[in-house]
Every structure is written in structure tokens, then in C-alpha cells.
């Protein structure tokens, strides 16, 4: 389990690969909500200086569902490269966007000079309010870009910047490569 | 003092200091050389256009080589020197007025491709039952390969707070780390320069009465923060800085910089 979480923890930002999340989510599904949360909690309990762990957040937001009026709480890592949409319910998993079962990461990174959020709040929210996914993740990369553009437009009222779209295309490309 | 470069970048040989560096900047360069070593100075002033980097006729936003403008090159030299002198002054103030503040690196600074940077430090203080207030100043120029500015909404100046209890324990903390400095990636095809500098104060005035709120500046993460200068901070006891220049417009991205003190 720790090997799996080690891979997930560093799956983030420039190196983010949706296929890693898909594989991990499908591997964890049979374990059930409480078991997965207990193991994640144990994994993040010990702080490791310099160790990237934000990939765990993206996994949780792909593996669990929330229903309106709830949405996942804001990420407090610092200033994210893409802001939360004006209506957070437009992208309830932000900064993850799940389109055609493809978990896309919308942010390239964050700027911080201070203290990032501890995992406790995220885990408490998931435990109390989120529903464990019931079916395996079956991504369809062929429609992911079109649905990303549609959902982005609905959330922000404008098309994504060129570098943002390129960032998403890289992720879809990695998913295709893994599937191929 | 930390200095780093990506291993795949060939470093131009150091040239003699340019016109300003050999005159008005000479004492500062000597002080910095004593304090931080030759590598920091080489990094701050190297490059094929080194002499033009200190050309007083160059405008602040003109690229003077090594991916920096004249203003950025001067700032990159001034930041380490200013931090060093500020900490010397801070130690004198401590001797007279007490309440020392120091920092120790818990995860060494790293300059990753595309402008990404990360550094973690822990604080310690002789102050009790109060707060550490850190003033953070940031700059960044991010561009695409054609020189067009990339969207960026970095908060240029803010103040943030940690609490200090009666035993000197500082909160919040993650292990021995209190302060995380992170600059984000701008991806392939980007280029630019960034800088951060901070001054840390000890106060017994509750930040909540000074307009500090969680998320006051998003870059503070979960800390109470504000973009309005608090009153009565006194003199800073600790100064820190970090800076970097990156170029990801070629197949071999580069990102060089320095940070300190340790």
C-alpha cells in the first residue's frame, strides 16, 4: 500500500499523469472507504521534509464523490496557478476536473511563503461528507479534451489560455500512452 | 547561503566585474564575497553580457544576458548583501533589546525546471507569548518564448503570523518546519526571473487586531495574513531571500539561483 501511495504522492503538477490516478483508484476500490482512509491517514501522519504529497489530494478528489450543495473544500497550499471558479459547484472537485472519467489536474503549481494546509481537514471532510466511488474508473481519452473545454467554459465563462490547454493535452497524451 | 544550477547548464567563465561593479558596487561585492563565497558572486554577475549587466545606461527591463534584466541583476546582488547586513544589524539589536529570531533549513532549496522552486525552514526565537510576523516581498517576470508576459497574480507584499507560546514553541508547524517557500512552474516554453525576500519580527500585539485574517494573502497558505502594513513591528531580527532565473525555451531547461541564510 505504501508503495502505491508513494507513487501517488508525487504524481502532481508538471509530471501529473491521470493514468496513475486511474490505476491507483481502481486498485483501492475493493478495499472500501474506511480502509483506504485509514491507510492514507497513516501515510500522511508523519511529516517528511521536502517530500511532495499533494498527489494524495488529487487521488481523494477522484476516488470520492460529493453532491450539491457540497463541493470539496478549497485547497490551501498557497496561491494556485488557476483560481477556484466563481461558482465552486461548477467544478466541485477543483483543482481536479473529472471528464469522461479522466481525472485532469487544472493547476500547474502554487506559490507559497507560509504554511500549507495539513491533511487533517481534507480527510475529515472526506470521511464526513464524501461518498466512496462505487464503480471502477474507465477513462475515455477520446472525448476528454472536448469535455474539458465545455466544462471550463461553463466554469469560467471564457476559453482556457493556450498554456493551460497545452497542459491538459499533455495529461491526455500521457493517459493515451499508458492505455496504448 | 545556497546556490544552485541545473547540472545540464554550462556556466560561462567569470569575467571581471562591470563598470558599476568596479566602482560604486565594489565594497558591497567584497562584503558579499566574504559572507557568501565566490560562487554567489559569480552566479550574480556572470554571463557573456556581464559588463552590460552593470551598465548604468541599461534600462531596468532590458535583458542584459543570463536571462535577467539590468534591474533584476542588480537586485540579485543586493538581496544577499541586504539580508546579510540586515541580520548583522538584527543581531546587534537582539543584544540590546533581546528577542532573537533565527532560522534553520529543514529541506534544502531546490531550483527545478520551468521556474519551480522549493525550500523549507524552521524558526526559533527567544521571544515568548507573542507572534512572529514575517514581511514577504516577491517579484516575478514570466514570459513565453516570444517574450509575451504570462498571466501571473502573485501578491507582491504581505505580512503573515505564527504564534509563539510561553515555552517558545511556534505554531503552526509541520515537524520542525514552519515556513515553506514555493514558486510554481510555468511549464515548457517559459522563461523568467523571480525573487523573494523576507523580514521577521517578534511582537506581543495580537495580529487579529491588526487586520490579519486566514487567506488575507493566498500565498500565506493557512497562516493569518494581511496586505496592509501592521503598526509597531519594531526592528526585524531575521532577513532571508531567494531568487532564480529560468529558461525553458530550449530543449535543455535551466534554472539557477541562490538563497540564504541557512
Distance between the termini of chain A: 26 Å
Q: Main beta sheet of chain A: strand number and arrangement?
A: 2 strands, antiparallel
Per the principal axes of the C-alpha atoms, what is the gross shape of chain A?
globular
Q: Which structural class matches the secondary elements of chain A? A: mainly alpha
Strand content of chain A: 5-15%
The whole-number mean of residue pLDDT values of chain A reads: 95
Helix amount of chain A: 40-55%
Largest interface: A-B, 28 and 47 residues
Strand content of chain B: 25-35%
For the record, the count of structural domains of chain A works out to: 1
Describe this structure in words.
The complex is a heterodimer of chains A (180) and B (262). By secondary structure, chain A is mainly alpha-helical. Chain A has 7 helices and 6 strands. Chain A has helices at residues 2-9, 18-28, 33-45, 54-63, 119-129, 141-156, 162-179; strands at 64-65, 79-80, 96-99, 102-105, 110-114, 131-132. In chain A, strands 1-6 form a two-stranded antiparallel ribbon. In chain A, strands 2-5 form a two-stranded antiparallel ribbon. Chain A has a two-stranded antiparallel ribbon with strand order 3-4. Chain B is of the alpha+beta class. In chain B, 19% of the residues lie in helices and 34% in strands. Chain B has 4 helices and 12 strands. In chain B, helix 1 packs across helix 2 (38-45) and helix 1 (26-36) crosses helix 4. The longest helix of chain B is centred in the first third of the chain and has 28 residues, at 70-97. Chain B starts with a strand and ends with a strand. The relative contact order of chain B is 0.20. The interface between A and B is large, with 28 and 47 residues.
Summarize this structure as a short list of keywords or feature phrases.
heterodimer; A: 180 residues; mainly alpha; two-stranded antiparallel ribbon; 7 helices; 6 strands; 11% strand; globular; B: 262 residues; alpha+beta; nine-stranded antiparallel beta sheet; three-stranded antiparallel beta sheet; 4 helices
Amino acid at each position: 500500500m505504501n508503495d502505491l501511495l508513494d507513487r501517488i504522492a508525487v504524481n502532481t503538477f508538471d509530471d501529473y499523469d491521470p493514468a496513475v490516478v486511474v490505476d491507483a483508484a481502481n486498485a483501492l476500490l475493493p478495499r472500501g472507504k474506511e480502509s483506504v482512509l485509514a491507510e492514507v491517514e497513516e501515510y500522511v501522519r508523519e511529516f517528511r521534509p521536502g517530500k511532495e504529497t499533494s498527489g494524495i489530494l488529487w487521488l481523494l478528489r477522484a476516488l470520492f464523490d460529493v453532491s450539491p450543495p457540497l463541493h470539496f473544500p478549497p485547497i490551501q497550499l498557497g496561491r494556485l496557478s488557476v483560481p477556484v471558479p466563481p461558482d465552486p459547484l461548477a467544478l466541485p472537485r477543483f483543482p481536479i476536473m473529472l471528464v469522461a472519467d479522466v481525472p485532469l489536474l487544472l493547476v500547474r503549481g502554487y506559490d507559497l511563503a507560509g504554511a500549507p494546509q495539513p491533511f487533517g481537514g481534507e480527510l475529515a471532510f472526506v470521511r464526513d461528507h464524501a461518498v466512496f466511488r462505487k464503480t471502477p474508473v474507465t477513462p475515455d481519452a477520446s472525448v476528454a479534451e472536448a469535455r474539458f473545454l465545455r466544462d471550463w467554459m461553463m466554469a469560467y465563462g471564457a476559453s482556457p489560455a493556450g498554456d493551460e490547454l497545452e497542459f491538459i493535452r499533455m495529461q491526455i497524451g500521457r493517459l493515451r500512452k499508458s492505455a496504448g | 547561503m545556497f546556490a544552485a544550477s541545473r547540472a545540464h547548464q554550462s556556466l560561462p567563465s567569470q569575467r571581471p566585474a562591470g563598470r558599476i561593479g568596479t566602482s560604486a558596487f565594489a565594497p558591497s561585492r567584497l562584503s558579499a564575497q566574504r559572507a557568501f563565497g565566490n560562487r554567489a558572486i559569480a552566479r550574480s554577475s556572470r554571463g557573456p553580457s556581464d559588463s552590460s549587466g552593470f551598465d548604468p545606461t541599461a534600462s531596468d527591463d532590458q535583458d542584459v544576458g543570463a536571462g535577467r534584466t539590468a534591474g533584476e541583476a542588480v537586485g540579485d546582488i543586493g538581496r544577499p548583501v541586504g539580508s546579510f547586513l540586515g541580520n548583522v544589524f538584527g543581531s546587534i539589536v537582539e543584544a540590546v533589546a533581546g528577542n532573537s529570531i533565527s532560522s534553520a533549513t529543514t529541506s534544502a532549496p531546490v531550483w527545478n525546471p520551468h521556474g519551480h522552486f522549493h525550500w523549507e525552514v524552521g524558526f526559533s526565537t527567544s521571544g515568548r507569548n507573542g507572534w512572529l510576523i514575517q514581511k514577504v516581498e516577491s517579484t516575478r517576470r514570466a514570459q513565453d518564448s516570444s517574450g509575451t508576459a504570462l498571466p501571473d497574480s502573485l501578491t507582491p507584499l504581505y505580512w503573515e503570523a505564527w504564534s509563539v507560546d510561553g515555552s517558545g514553541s511556534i505554531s503552526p508547524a509541520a515537524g520542525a518546519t514552519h515556513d515553506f517557500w514555493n514558486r510554481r512552474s510555468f511549464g515548457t516554453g517559459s522563461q523568467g526571473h523571480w525573487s523573494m525576500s523576507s523580514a521577521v519580527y517578534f511582537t506581543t500585539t495580537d495580529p487579529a487586531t491588526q487586520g490579519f485574517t486566514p487567506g488575507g494573502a493566498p500565498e500565506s497558505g493557512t497562516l493569518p495574513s494581511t496586505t496592509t502594513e501592521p503598526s509597531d513591528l519594531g526592528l526585524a531580527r531575521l532577513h532571508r531571500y531567494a531568487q532564480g532565473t529560468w529558461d525553458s525555451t530550449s530543449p535543455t531547461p535551466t534554472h539557477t539561483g541562490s538563497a540564504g541564510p541557512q
